[in-house]
Design a protein that fits this description.
By secondary structure, the protein is an alpha/beta fold. It folds into 2 domains: about 230 residues, Rossmann fold; about 80 residues, Pdz3 Domain (Roll), CATH 2.30.42.10. It has 14 helices and 16 strands. The strands form 3 sheets. The protein has an 8-stranded mixed β-sheet, with helices on both faces. Strands 11, 12, 13, 14, 15 and 16 form a 6-stranded antiparallel β-sheet that branches. A hairpin with a 2-residue loop joins strand 13 and strand 14. Helix 1 packs across helix 2, helix 3 packs antiparallel against helix 4 and helix 7 runs antiparallel to helix 11. The chain is globular.
Length: about 425
């Protein structure tokens, strides 16, 4: 399943105070050059000014009338579901999500929080965690967080901790990775009856704008992949001719499967959220998901509205390249926030049958200085067993630079122990 991966990976952010700014989207907009204010000033008025070519639209936000979160919270509280987007690696986005959850929690009775980042088969682990019968560490193990989601859990910790403190149900929305991968290979029609039963009965393909948007995303990925493969295959003209001969047909089939996988993903999350809301008629839900599932309302929002027959609110943390009122209801503007720097081993790893193998030693990293070598198999970290690459991230979750860690490795059938100073 895993190729060579930097499992300690990029972009850990350090904590700072976030002030959430919200703007009601009433027109086409671009926020690329809009300064992010440090104090709430705000607006629900957006003015368009046309300059130059007719297709150039410049949107002006009146920063003197921008509303803060508490000013629009009463309006958000009237919806049965509020969907809040995120850039998965942006800590500030998750702090914004917590701020909305806390604000609505004061106004709602029967709140639940729907999570894209936990898959449906692991609902029991979330229930046990909220009930304080499962520790954070055990919950992360049982949900296979670092195998399936992989992003630094510290980004999401404030959400989980508040839900646990307030006994707010956490709902696993996502369909299993195995299912989306299977659909990407064989399409919906290629699924077994048992696999198809894991998906909603209705998967709506009628939205042409949704399909067009996904086609653009697919083509972008395809172009990047083509450039990469062209560089690798440079000089092999005969092989390139064979590939190009069938590329159009293959690309169309590949897109169809990609499209169906995305449909299943969005429909699956919407169906799970709807099932909870329909089962609990007085409940309301905040849904946390990547912005791509919310933009233009084509993904989760429209599919959830179809099922619960009620309009939902869409709050975006990232406006995208061409934000418009059709994209969502509110746009959050806030200062960036960062997590504390994580302590790193200084290695790249790969998963093999033998275990977690060190594939690369980072120059001047902790592993290099401690004498670890490429090909070493990691057995333990601080006397805790390492079986999968996710175990490494979990065992180093709160490790800090300059912290000392003892690891045991297998090298040439001999067990060795090394002490590292994390960097």
């Amino acid at each position: 399943m895993f190729n060579q991966v930097d499992v300690e990976s990029p972009l850990f952010f350090s904590r700072c105070i976030v002030i959430v700014m919200l703007v009601f989207l009433t027109a086409c907009a671009t926020t690329k050059n809009i300064p992010k204010p440090l104090v709430p000033v705000a607006t629900n008025e957006v003015e368009q000014v046309i300059l130059g070519p007719e297709d150039r639209v410049i949107t002006v936000l009146d920063l003197q009338t921008v509303k803060g979160l508490e000013a629009i919270a009463p309006r958000l509280s009237t919806y049965r579901a509020v969907l809040v987007g995120e850039n998965h690696i942006a800590y500030g986005d998750h702090l914004n999500q917590v701020a909305i959850i806390k604000s609505l929690h004061k106004r709602w009775k029967g709140m639940a929080i729907g999570l894209e980042f936990v898959q449906q088969p692991f609902q029991k682990a979330l229930d046990e965690y909220v009930a304080c019968r499962l520790s954070e560490f055990d919950m992360l193990q049982q949900t296979q967080w670092y195998k399936r989601w992989k992003y630094d859990f510290r980004l999401y910790r404030p959400i989980f901790e508040f839900a646990r403190e307030q006994k707010i149900p956490l709902i696993a929305l996502n369909i299993p990775t195995e299912l989306t991968k299977r659909i990407s290979k064989v399409g919906l029609d290629g699924l077994t009856a048992r696999q198809r039963q894991q998906l909603p009965k209705t998967i709506d393909k009628s939205n042409e704008a949704y399909a067009k948007h996904l086609k653009n995303v697919f083509n972008l990925h395809a172009r990047v992949a083509h450039v990469h493969s062209s560089k690798k295959g440079k000089g092999n003209k005969q092989a390139n001719k064979r590939v190009n001969k069938h590329s159009t047909h293959s690309a169309n089939k590949s897109f169809d499967r990609f499209y169906e996988a995305q449909l299943a993903w969005d429909e699956g999350m919407a169906a799970t959220a709807a099932a909870y809301l329909l089962k609990h008629p007085t409940a309301k839900m905040v849904i946390l998901a990547g912005g791509g599932h919310l933009i233009n309302r084509h993904g989760i929002p429209a599919r959830l509205e179809r099922r619960i027959r009620s309009k939902v609110a869409v709050v975006l943390n990232d406006a995208g390249e061409q934000p418009a009122a059709s994209n969502g209801d509110f746009l959050l503007l806030s200062p960036a926030a960062k997590l504390p720097k994580a302590g790193l081993l200084g290695i790249l790893m790969r998963q093999e049958n033998a275990g977690v193998v060190i594939s690369t030693i980072i120059p001047n990293g902790a592993a290099k200085k401690a004498g670890l070598k490429e090909g070493d198999i990691l057995l333990t970290i601080a006397e805790n067993k390492v079986k999968e690459m996710g175990d490494v991230k979990l065992l180093l979750l709160d490790a800090k630079p300059a912290e000392e860690k003892t690891v045991s490795i297998l090298r040439d059938n001999k067990k060795l122990q090394k002490t590292l100073i994390l960097q």
